[in-house]
Amino acid sequence: MSRAALLLAALLVVGCGSSRTTAHTTPSRAAKRPPQQAANGPSPARPGHVAPSRRAVPVLMYHVIAAPKPGAAYAGLWVAPDAFRAQVDALARAGFTAVTLDTVLDAWRGRAMLPRRPVVFSFDDGYLSQGKEAAAVLRERRWPGVLNLAWHNLGAPGGLTAGRVRTMIAEGWEIDAHSLTHPDLRTLDATALRREVAGSRERIRRAFGVPADAFCYPAGRYDPTVEAAVRAAGYRAATTVEPGAARPGADHFALPRVRVNGGDGAGAVLGRVRAALDSAA
């Protein structure tokens, strides 16, 4: 066989071996998580190969990535795309690298390694701007985000489409649950609470074939009954709106976050991140 024929045969073998398909059915409890970013990200590790990390990690909280419209409700939740880009750039210059919450939880258990200065970008509710504006900025650095998807926003006007969510997953994003209809979970009876908490995870798992291992309390409202329902649904962590950095020794079902408000400059966000880490030290 000629040298050219041998090279062609080798390429065909490599190409066939690297193909894969994505299932959109309910994953098993051992379901694989979406691939992490190839550059600037944590090094994978098998259980027992690294010591559990004791590092605190700031989890940033965003909502709409767009300039607020005149008369928009909750204008403080709108962050303009240029401001978001400046915040990402400032964190990168300061040595931070984005990871998913799953990676943080794995590192705390000795199942992954964190970069020197990890940070999590979390986005609540499921607005279209998160999959367009925010994803475009993070994509440039090959950084992932974490989408806390309120199921009723999927396919709604101004909300993410299923196709867009699948694109985000392919780019390394983590998809977590934020309830079905974004109610005050403290006001629900046991049946409705279970439907909102467990049902939102089940919908995400069936639609996208991802674990959805974390829950985000709608509007940050929760109590011991709500937290117990989140634990019973099989999640391994939950995020709040309480300020601070997430720490491995704290309650993993009441993880704090660093809120980013509309009008915040890059310096203010960086300062808030550093303050949260200092408080967690």
Please describe what this structure looks like.
By secondary structure, the protein is an alpha/beta fold. It has helices at residues 3-17, 81-93, 101-108, 128-141, 162-170, 190-208, 224-232, 266-280; strands at 59-62, 97-98, 118-125, 146-149, 174-177, 214-216, 237-243, 255-259. Helix 2 (81-93) packs parallel to helix 4, helix 2 (81-93) packs across helix 8 and helix 6 (190-208) runs parallel beside helix 7 (224-232). The longest helix is centred in the last third of the chain and has 19 residues, at 190-208. It is globular and about 45 Å long. The N and C termini lie far apart (64 Å).
Task: State the main characteristics.
281 residues, 8 helices, globular, disordered N terminus, 8-stranded parallel sheet, alpha/beta
